[in-house]
Structure formats: C-alpha cells, structure tokens
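In the design runs reported in the main text, the only information available to the sequence generator was the tokenized backbone. The following block is the verbatim input for one such run; it is reproduced so that readers can re-run the procedure and compare outputs position by position.
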C-alpha cells in the first residue's frame, strides 16, 4: 500500500511526522477496507437486481455500485481441473471484510475478524428475515431446466435430491450435518459463480407460509467436462443441523445468486426418507437425452423401466413413448430449455447432468441401474438376464464392495451385411430387429473404460460418468466383467464416418438369438397395437433369399457362416482419437436403431 513509503526517504530526523504519516496510512488502509467491505456487502446483501432497482434505503449504496464488478469470487472447487487463476485475487480478504461488516464492527482490529456468512452453517435468522419470502405461486418442479437469475454466466438448475450418504461438501461443518441437498445443474466449468440455496421447509400447522433457511452452496463440477465452457454440476446445499420445522429435510430448494432477489426456481427435493421404498425393483435403464428426430423408431421394447430425456423426439417415437409411459415402463422427462449449445458450449446436451439425474432419481427405487444409449445392449453370454448374471457372479466372488460392473464395448457395424437368418423371420417386425439382423461384430473389443458401459448400484455411486463411475461412496469400486460373461453390443455405423471400419477383423456373434422368439413376439404385439394410433411407418417386408447368399441357413445349424478371410487393419491411433468423436456420430445412427430391446425387460417379467 502507498502508506509504506512513509517509512523510507529522508524524514528519519522527524519522528513525529513519521508517526503521523504512519497513523494516516493506517487510517487509509482501514478506510479502504471499509469501503471495499461495504461494496462487497452491498453486492451480497443489499443490491437486488443487476438492473439497479434499489430496495428501501439502500439506493445510495446501489448507486455506488454502478459500473463496479467484483473480481471473480474465490471458489473452492473440488477438482484439479480448476486452474490456479480461479483462486487468484480476493482469497482471504473477501471473507474477512464481509465478516467485519456483518458483525457491525468498525474495523481496524485484526483480532475482531468473524467468519464469512458463507462459512456459517446458515444465515443468521436476523438476515434470513430480511430476505424475500417464497412466492407461493411459483411452480414446484422436479425435472425442468430453469435459470438462476443475476448470474454473469449461464446457470441452470434441473432437479434436487436429498443425499444423506456422505457429506458431499467436504467441509467439516457439513460432515456433521444431516446430509446435503444435491441440485443437478449446469454452469461455467471454471470458476463457477457462488450461489446460495434457499431451503424451504413445510410448516407443520398447515400455514400458507414456508419457513426458510439459507445456506451457501458449493458448486461441484462433474468431471467429464471436455474442457468446454459449461458443464453439468452439482450444486450442493449442506443441510443445517437445526431445522426451523419438524421436518429435517426441506420440501423444496431455490438456487439464487443474489440473496435479495426473489427466487425464480423452486425445486422439489426428492429421495426424502419417507419416499424411499424397502422393496426395490431390480434394474432400470437410463438413456441420455433424445435430441434427434426419432421417427424411424420402429419398435421400442419396454425395459423394466427406462428413463429418457426428451429433447427433440419425433411424432411417431413420441407416441410410442407415451404408450410405454402409460404402462409405467418408461419415464420421459423434459430436457428442453437448457440454453447451451451442444458440443460447443456443453458436452452432448448436458449428457452428464442427465446421467446423474437418472442415477439419483433411481437410487431408492432400483437395485441396479444401467446407463446406456438406445443403440447399446448389455448381453450376457451364458445367462439369460443381467440380473441372473450378477447373481451368479455374486455367488462366486465377493461383490459386497462392488458398486459398478463394467462391460467391454463391441461394435456391430451396421454396414456389415445382415445375418442370413433374417430371411427366416416370420414377421416384418422380427426381420427388422437390429439385434437379430446384425450379428457380425468387431473381434477386438475395446478395453474397459474406453466406450465401455456399466451397471451400477446407484446407492454406492456419488458421481456417474458416461463410461465409468467417477466417484463411489468410499469403499466401493468397479468390477470388470470378463468378456466371456457379457459384453456391450453396440449397433452403429463406422465411428469415423465412411465405410472403412468394416475392414477390421470381425466375428459372428449370435448371442442375442437366444431372445429371438420372446423378443419378436413382444415387439410384434406392441407394433400391431400402436400401428394405427401412432401412424407408424410401413415396415420393409421380410427379405427373401437372394442368390448373393450362397449358403442357405434354413434348417442348418448356427455354425453356417460365410468364411471370409478379412484383412485385419488395426489402426492404432484409433483408440485415442475415438472418444473425441464419440457421441457426435452416435446421434444420427438413431434412424437405424430399431429396438430398445434390452433383455433387462425379460429379467423382470421372468421374476414376477
Ligand atoms: C396458499 O397460497 C396460494 C397462493 O397465494 C393459494 O393459491 C393457495 O390457495 C393458498 N393455500 C392455502 C391452504 O391457503
Ligand atoms: C417431448 O417434448 C415435446 C415438446 O415439448 C412434446 O410436445 C412431446 O409431447 C414430448 N414427448 C414425450 C414423449 O413426452
Ligand atoms: C449363469 O451362467 C453360469 C455360467 O455359465 C451358469 O453356471 C449359471 O447356472 C447361470 N445362472 C443362471 C441363473 O442362468
Ligand atoms: C441428423 O438427422 C436429422 C434428421 O434426419 C437431420 O435433420 C440432421 O441434419 C442430421 N444431422 C447430421 C449431423 O447429420
């Protein structure tokens, strides 16, 4: 600070002047801190809107603030990705001076420093009382992208879950608390803005007011952000030990950037203790947002339960989905209004927000959750169902600490010729089933974690990724399922475009044929039922045997196969580049994907 100059120069002779100057510079420092603290304080507590609408007597302060912006607030991110620049600047001073002013002390004494209200378990009741009340007309949502207003960067919230498994917040205060409310959100990857959680508790006497507690939120960016500007994230609200009502867990939460601004979102807190069942179903499937026109969705076979996110779904597919929804086999959740550009600003429609939303949504309803795409099926080789396979493995090895089972990826390129058995199909629906039509796959499987998919016990997982689990509840891990037990069948076109991929070494794999009859019958029934209602397109007729296929499969064993010696072209760099392009090309394979015939559906049906 400028005052330091007082100590140097030629004024050594006059100790009195020196002392005076030192005092003055001390006063300047104090004043600077006071003004700075005031600015910070107004920023946090008094200024309502960025528009500068002044509230009550704070208009003068509001004027001071015009044109001023706080440097990026110091955050405490969890992960290494957040660069050092995010810590720069205000660290320390911000907390201290807010503390001073909140306590109404006139500053100057370093010993009088009080904690930042962000460090408190919750805002003191005197401050809470001055914050806007909840507008009872504000809609309570449980799955809808809504903006957090007054932020400098885009900030959206989707859903909220009570989580009492670990203190996800990591701070000692939270560790002793009741747990956290996790809000599935999307915002800036680096240096996300500070936000607050306004927790709304139900009044037990039925009064039409909602008691509130406000806590500082912690923004935890979901690790798979691909270095894009925005990421899916968790906004973590540590619950205070003292609840203002008999309910320990709030009914809803609003995420706000400015405390004095009226909340614009009111999200239902799910996974409350009373909503959890002891009787979980076995397996659910989560599918990332559908963001293509899915009109040639010929048959969508009900799985045990499938959760999908509706971004852009074509009419016929939407109709079929509604049918499955009415049978409670499918949940379609809206995925609109996430105003971030896919791939340029955020990874694939906020895929990781969807995965984690589905993870938490399923947590107390299903024992296992498979996080897959519509063109992927986990097919056990020897067992009939995934649940049988998991049980069988559970009997042979200790899977107590297994939180996830990983399955290696096998591409079944759609450019490879149809299986000759297709000509034996009894119905056009059967002939159209992709899992029966495409039986040639790449011999070489991808290693685990590369394009692999997994089935997890959602209760053991904190943060789900696309190909593997990022974070487990401590003491849990992934089991790599050997490829002779089960693999991931992935039906798609060449991942790098063109047709070259089909030159790689391939194998015929008819494992899916064990589901042939059940699958065909079930799909045919549904197709017939929905054809008129959903104006489903005409199906291609069952192909007839063409002279091109030399060996007739009729009446022969499964061994009948065209023995083409194919040149193995193994491009090594492939693996590295692969992930970059991954989801992009997946999107438009959709028009060729015919079924969501996960055998998991069979699993439940058989168990009942
Ligand atoms: C509570 O307030 C809302 C909005 O003002 C109103 O629509 C509702 O009827 C009220 N409910 C009760 C029980 O008073
Ligand atoms: C998907 O969203 C669109 C647009 O909001 C809506 O019209 C359609 O009914 C939704 N489809 C399903 C299956 O929910
Ligand atoms: C699952 O597969 C294993 C290995 O072939 C077999 O021993 C076991 O009996 C199967 N279990 C069921 C329920 O099919
Ligand atoms: C994907 O398919 C849709 C509908 O057929 C089309 O409008 C869109 O341009 C395609 N996108 C790409 C990247 O090919």
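Verbatim output:
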């Amino acid at each position: 600070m400028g005052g330091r100059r007082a100590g140097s120069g030629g004024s050594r002779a006059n100790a009195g002047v020196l002392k005076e100057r030192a005092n003055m510079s001390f006063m300047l420092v104090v004043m600077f801190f006071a003004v700075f603290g005031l600015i910070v304080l107004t920023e946090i507590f008094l200024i309502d809107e960025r528009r500068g609408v002044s509230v009550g007597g704070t208009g003068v302060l509001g004027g001071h603030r015009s044109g001023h912006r706080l440097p990026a607030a110091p955050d405490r991110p969890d992960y290494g990705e957040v660069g050092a620049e995010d810590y720069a600047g205000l660290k320390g001073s911000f907390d201290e001076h807010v503390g001073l002013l909140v306590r109404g002390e006139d500053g100057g004494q370093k010993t009088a420093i009080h904690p930042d209200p962000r460090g408190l378990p919750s805002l003191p009741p005197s401050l809470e009382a001055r914050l806007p009340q909840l507008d009872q007309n504000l809609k309570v949502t449980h799955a809808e992208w809504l903006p957090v207003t007054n932020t400098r960067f885009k900030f959206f919230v989707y859903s909220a879950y009570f989580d009492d498994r670990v203190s996800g917040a990591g701070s000692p205060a939270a560790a002793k608390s009741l747990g956290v409310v996790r809000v599935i959100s999307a915002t800036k990857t680096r240096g996300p803005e500070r936000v607050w959680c306004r927790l709304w508790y139900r009044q037990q006497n039925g009064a039409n007011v909602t008691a509130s507690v406000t806590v500082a939120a912690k923004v935890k960016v979901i690790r798979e952000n691909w270095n894009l500007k925005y990421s899916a994230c968790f906004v973590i609200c540590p619950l205070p030990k003292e609840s203002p009502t008999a309910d320990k867990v709030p009914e809803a939460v609003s995420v706000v950037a400015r405390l004095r601004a009226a909340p614009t979102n009111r999200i239902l807190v799910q996974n409350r203790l009373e909503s959890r069942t002891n009787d979980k179903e076995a397996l659910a499937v989560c599918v990332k947002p559908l963001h293509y026109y899915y009109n040639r969705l010929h048959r969508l076979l009900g799985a045990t339960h499938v959760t999908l996110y509706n971004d852009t779904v074509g009419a016929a597919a939407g109709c079929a989905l509604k049918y499955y929804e009415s049978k409670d086999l499918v949940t379609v959740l809206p995925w609109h209004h996430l105003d971030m550009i896919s791939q340029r600003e955020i990874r694939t429609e906020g895929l990781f927000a969807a995965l984690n939303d589905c993870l938490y949504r399923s947590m107390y309803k299903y024992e296992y959750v498979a996080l897959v795409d519509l063109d992927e099926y986990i097919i056990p080789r020897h067992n009939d169902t995934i649940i049988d396979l998991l049980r069988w493995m559970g009997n042979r090895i200790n899977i107590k600490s297994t939180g996830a089972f990983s399955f290696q990826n096998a591409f079944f390129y759609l450019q490879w010729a149809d299986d000759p058995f297709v000509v034996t199909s009894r119905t056009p629906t059967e002939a159209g089933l992709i899992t029966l039509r495409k039986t040639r796959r790449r011999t070489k499987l991808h290693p685990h974690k590369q394009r692999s998919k997994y089935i997890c016990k959602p209760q053991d997982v904190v943060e789900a990724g696309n190909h593997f689990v990022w974070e487990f509840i401590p003491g849990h891990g992934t089991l790599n399922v050997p490829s002779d037990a089960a693999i991931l069948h992935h039906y798609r076109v060449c991942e790098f475009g063109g047709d070259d991929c089909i030159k790689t070494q391939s194998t015929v794999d008819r494992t899916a044929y064990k589901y042939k009859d059940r699958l065909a019958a079930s799909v045919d029934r549904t197709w017939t039922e929905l054809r008129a209602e959903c104006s489903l397109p005409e199906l291609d007729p069952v192909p007839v045997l063409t002279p091109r296929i030399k060996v007739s499969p009729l009446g022969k064993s499964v061994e009948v196969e065209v023995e083409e010696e194919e040149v193995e072209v193994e491009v090594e760099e492939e693996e590295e580049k692969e992930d970059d392009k991954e989801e992009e090309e997946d999107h438009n394979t959709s028009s060729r994907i015919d079924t969501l015939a996960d055998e998991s559906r069979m699993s439940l049906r058989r168990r009942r």
